[in-house]
Structure formats: C-alpha cells, structure tokens
Amino acid sequence: MPQDRPVPLDEYPVHQAPLSMKHLVTGDRNAYDRCIFHVFDHQGRALLIAGLGVYPNAGLIDAYATLRIGDRLHAVRASDALTDDRMNLSVGPLRITVDTPLRRLTLHCAPDPGDPNSLSYDITWHADFPALWEPHHTQRKGDRLTLEGRRFVQAGHCTGVIRVGGQEIPVTAGEWTGTRDRSWGVRPIPGEEAGRGDEYRPEGFHWLWVPARFDDRFLMVITQEDADGYRTLNEAVLVQDGHPDAQLGWPQTDITYRSGTRHPERAVIHLTDTSRKPLELGVEILASSPLAVGAGYPPADGWQHGTWQGRDWSDRQTYDLSDPAAHPMAAFGVTDHAARFTLDGQTGYGIFEHGSFGRHDPSGFTDYTSLAP
Question: Is 212 inside any structural domain?
Fold first, then answer.
C-alpha cells in the first residue's frame, strides 16, 4: 500500500512546487508556519496572547495562550502530531478558525474539564485595516542561514468573552484592541545541530516590533539592531483608508527604562512623513507579558515551540510575575507590552514588543549584565 497519498489541500490550485501540499520545498528541520494574536483592553487590566504553529518537517503542531491579569499569568499549552488536514487549526483545548480570510477569525480555548475556574475564551477577531507585509527577515550565524521569514501584520478589534478564576471578562469593541502576526519560513527550534554556531554569538541584539492602531489609521514600526546600533531590519509604514501606504522614514526611538532593568516604561519613536515633517509616536506601557514565561518563546526553561512532547500533550500553569527574580530568563527574551500611543493629537492602542540583550551602544548598555541607571 502506498505510504503517501494526496491530502485535502491538494484539491485547491494553491501549489507553489510540483509537490503535495503535505510537503515543503525545503527539508530544513526548522521550517515553520505560525501565528500570534494579541488581545487587550485599553486600561491595561488584561493582556491575552495566543498562537499556533505547524512544524511540517518535525511532524508536529502546537499552540499556546497566556493571560496576564494583575501579577498573575495564566498559561495553556498543547502539542500533538501533525495530521494531513492543514486547515484544521486546533490542538488540545486551543483552536483558531479562519471565518473570512484576512477579515475575521475566531479564537477558542476550552476550559480544563477538572477545573471550571481555569482559563477559557471565545473571541472573534475583526480586521479594521488591510494586512500589511513586513520586511523580508533573514539572519545568519556565520555562513549558515538560521532564520528566513515572510510575515504580515494586521490590526483590528475583538468581541467575545474571557473566563478565568470564576469570572467572565467581556471583550467589547471600542474598549479592546487586537493585533496579529502571521509568519512562515525557517526559524530555529530547539535541538542539537552541528556547526560553529557558538563562535557567532552576538555581542548584543536590540528589537522593536510596534503595531499601533488608531481609529482611522494603522502604523507599523520594526527595527532590529546589532550591538553597535547597525540596523539589520527597518520599517515604518502608515496605512490609512483612501491613501497609499506611506513610508515614514528611518525610525529613531528614545526609551525610558525602569531603573535597574531593561523594562521600558514609555518611549518616543521619531518618524518623518512624506513631506519631511517630523512625527512623534508617543508610547505609554499599560501591561507586559514576557514571552519566555508560559508562551514557549526562547529562552523559556520549560516547553518551547516546535519540541515534541508526545501525542495529545497539554499543560496548564499559573505564574506569579510580582517578583522578577523568580523568572530570571524572562529578561533575556522578548516581552510584549500592551501600550497606549499618541500621534498627531490622536490616541491609539497596540503592542510595543521589545527585546534588548547584551551590548547596545545607542542605549548605553555595555554587556549582558548592563541595566538602566
């Protein structure tokens, strides 16, 4: 009997290579295809982050959700073997449904059957602006390509309900914002790899990913810099109905950090419109969620994305974030901050994703132990 048969997605004219949609052109073990959603209220009381990833050459699918309320972070994670039904975006208690591509999606998390107070939600994510391509993203360690990603970002609003700890939190339009990111390509997953990678450990890394949604416009800013401030990724684009997408120059960011940390409290991103007029995007941090705690992003010391946990694996954890010393690895991973933005007298909301590790000359950080005065 043949071991390989067509899969349902092969019925559609979407092929990019003379292969079944079950297979990728690349055999790289680090191939991935995943998404992340941010759902948060405008007062900074709740920040929900949810995502799902497929790793075709590793043969697995996994998903996660974290909800921060106060100093408590509630996390749900799940992993399983990948099936041939690539349009079924569910694993364990977590599910994403594409209701209308690029317009409306539904996020669902079932409660723990043994704990009615556990995290669950039913949320509809509505796009308010067209999806926007992010810059083609590549990274190398020496001569080896370690990351090549194609991504798009989108902003909108959300409706539905979040349940946790015996309470129901209504998610209402006008009081909550939603952003999302879709990406695919090659991105490191944990596991042994031969080579000289350790010889190329960077002295520093500085990252900003900032989708900001206003009532009538959407602004996306991305920067990635090396230790000396050399920029390897740069984007600043304004999306507005009835206008062509506008590039806003070379963003420069002034960040005010909490003393003794690299935790941003507020920032100003300096931009330039198409007529060379200076623009200032003000940033006020409302709530923060470190992706290395609960969400499976490196350098998480527990579960990480793309790691085989066995069939039908799921896990729930609750973390206390009141003591940063209890989660030392969080400082060496990216943190997603729900933020209030100001631009041209308008107020908007979005995510200020920030990571700064090691030396970064423009910020005055000298090494991996350096912190704000």
Answer: yes
Contact 171, 123 (CB under 8 A): yes
Note down the domain range covering 241.
201-291+334-373
Nearest-angstrom CA–CA distance, 105 and 120: 17
Separation CA 153–CA 132 (nearest Å): 5
- Catalogue the E-assigned strands of 165-251: 167-171, 176-186, 204-213, 217-226, 231-240, 246-247
**d(C-alpha 100, C-alpha 103), whole Å:** 5
The answer to whether the CB of 278 falls within 8 A of the CB of 271 is yes
pLDDT of residue 112: 96
Instruction: Find the angle CA(282)-CA(128)-CA(16) to the nearest 5 degrees.
Output: 110
| pLDDT tens digit sequence for 71-127 | 999 999 999 999 999 999 999 999 999 999 999 999 999 999 999 899 999 999 999
Q: Quick one: 320 and 276 in the same domain?
A: no
